[in-house]
Amino acid sequence: ARDGGATHARGSRAVSRTDAGHYVCRATNKHGSAVRSVVVTVEYEPSIGETGCPARRLWVEGTPAELACAASGNPPPHVACAKLGDGQDPPLVSPNVTRAHAGTYQCRATNTHGSALRNITVAVEYSPVAVSLRVLPSANVSRGASFSVECHAEGLPTPTYGWALPPANNLHFATDNRSVAIAGAAAANRGLYTCTATNRHGRRASSVMVRVDGEMGCIGKVGGNLSITATASPAPSHLVESRLVLVASLGSLGAVTAVGLAAAGGYYLKTTACKKGEYNVRDAEGSSEAACLHRQRHDRGEIYGIQLPQP
């Protein structure tokens, strides 16, 4: 009888794992009885289940990792795990888990009766890295043009994005906040654009400087009208006056009128210069009395001018 249970008849049958246990054998005749205890052990090949060996694991970069996998079997099986495609066993216990540990591993349980296999997928989470910013079409933007700043970062879980940038009313952020578009660039859009990528393991930021061309400049016609020009950094007064005299001499205005306009132009430039060294010609924009154009001179920087119609 097994563990004091019902008596089993003698004979043979197929053994199963449930046959293992403690048995009591009792022999009896008219003169008495004899008792003997027997422990029955059933050996069997290995098996690996989800409970002792989950098919998906999650590691965090920089933390210890151990790819343990429990298997059943008798005798107790030996379990070894290797990353598929590596050709060798990876370090399964490490103080510095890296993203290179991510992948599919195969665990094999073996004893004298056979073996069992189980695949395990390992994902490695990590804080955002490689944050990069890209300005399209360029970080040097012409006033009135449109541009966008895009942010990209690697990380698991997928990072979320935040921005620190010059405040303006012409900003449009993408749905996922990975980019910001600016239409009709103005001076308010100049400055440092910083993108911060964040997930539950940390954050990282990157910045880019965006430059927007200065005020709209004017290059007037030489002829019927007088063209007054000034560099982005104020030029010496004798250079300004020389240019005014030269341009005026090419016009159709009389000498007295040219001199008067030159003096008035010099007074305008001196009294409306910005503190940063740029001449303020915003007042001329959109005016019916002035027409503005802009050009770039490599030898003297940006050139601005105000075209004044002939009285």
TrEMBL record:
<dbReference type="InterPro" id="IPR003599">
    <property type="entry name" value="Ig_sub"/>
</dbReference>
<dbReference type="InterPro" id="IPR047012">
    <property type="entry name" value="ICAM_VCAM"/>
</dbReference>
<dbReference type="GO" id="GO:0007155">
    <property type="term" value="P:cell adhesion"/>
</dbReference>
<dbReference type="InterPro" id="IPR007110">
    <property type="entry name" value="Ig-like_dom"/>
</dbReference>
<dbReference type="GO" id="GO:0005178">
    <property type="term" value="F:integrin binding"/>
</dbReference>
<dbReference type="InterPro" id="IPR013783">
    <property type="entry name" value="Ig-like_fold"/>
</dbReference>
<protein>
    <submittedName>
        <fullName>ICAM5 protein</fullName>
    </submittedName>
</protein>
<dbReference type="InterPro" id="IPR003598">
    <property type="entry name" value="Ig_sub2"/>
</dbReference>
<dbReference type="GO" id="GO:0005886">
    <property type="term" value="C:plasma membrane"/>
</dbReference>
<feature type="domain" description="Ig-like">
    <location>
        <begin position="46"/>
        <end position="123"/>
    </location>
</feature>
<feature type="transmembrane region" description="Helical">
    <location>
        <begin position="244"/>
        <end position="269"/>
    </location>
</feature>
<feature type="domain" description="Ig-like">
    <location>
        <begin position="128"/>
        <end position="211"/>
    </location>
</feature>
<dbReference type="Pfam" id="PF13927">
    <property type="entry name" value="Ig_3"/>
</dbReference>
<dbReference type="InterPro" id="IPR036179">
    <property type="entry name" value="Ig-like_dom_sf"/>
</dbReference>
<keyword id="KW-0472">Membrane</keyword>
<keyword id="KW-0812">Transmembrane</keyword>
<keyword id="KW-1133">Transmembrane helix</keyword>
